[in-house]
Amino acid sequence: MISENQSRKVLGCLLMASLVSTTLFAQAAGDQKTIGTIATSVASSFQAIGQLILGIAFVAGLGFGVTAIFKFKQHKDNPQQTPVGQPVALMAISAALVFLPGFYNPLGATMGVSSAGGFTGSGQEALPGAKKP
After folding, report:
1. If we measure between CA atoms, which residue out of 121, 100, 119 comes closest to residue 44?
2. Which sign, positive or negative, has the C-alpha torsion 55, 56, 57, 59?
3. Which residue, 4, 16, 55, 114, is most buried by CB atoms nearer than 10 A?
4. How would you write the chain as a 3-class SS string?
5. Which domain holds residue 133?
6. Number of domains composing the chain
7. pTM of the shown model
8. Integer Cα distance of 114 and 107 in angstroms
9. Is residue 21 situated within a structural domain?
């Protein structure tokens, strides 16, 4: 006998499968989807994900920088409670996150990879340390 919880799960799965199938295979009249257009669409989605990751890294780097400044102040006020290594480490993490795009080429060259191009999506040139096209 199928329990009520199991029947709800099966019904939910069937509903999701029907929604997914209609959205995947629905297309406008005259709009032919080919493997190439689908691949281009997926590639543009990954470009947006790369921009999102760089934006989050930049904002997080700024946050770590502000935190490091406050930790330096705490160390000045009470050196026994806040060791100097803590704000120094936060400042290093901040610099690494803010200048993340600029680390790809040198890191690839160090490891012997000649095609380490880094992220070249549109909009990333506004970030500090980004590779300029």
Report:
1. 121
2. positive
3. 55
4. CCCHHHHHHHHHHHHHHHHHHHHHHCCCCCCCCCHHHHHHHHHHHHHHHHHHHHHHHHHHHHHHHHHHHHHHHHHHHCCCCCCCHHHHHHHHHHHHHHCHHHHHHHHHHHCCCCCCCCCCCCCHHHCCCCCCC
5. 37-133
6. 1
7. 0.54
8. 10
9. no
Q: What is the pLDDT of residue 109?
A: 72
* Domain-embedded: residue 55: yes
The one-letter amino acid code at 24 reads L
Dist CA 101 CA 56 (whole Å): 12
> Is 104 a member of any domain?
yes
The tens digit of pLDDT for each residue in 74-124 reads 999 999 999 999 999 999 999 998 887 777 667 767 777 665 455 555 555
Q: Give domain status of residue 17, yes or no.
A: no
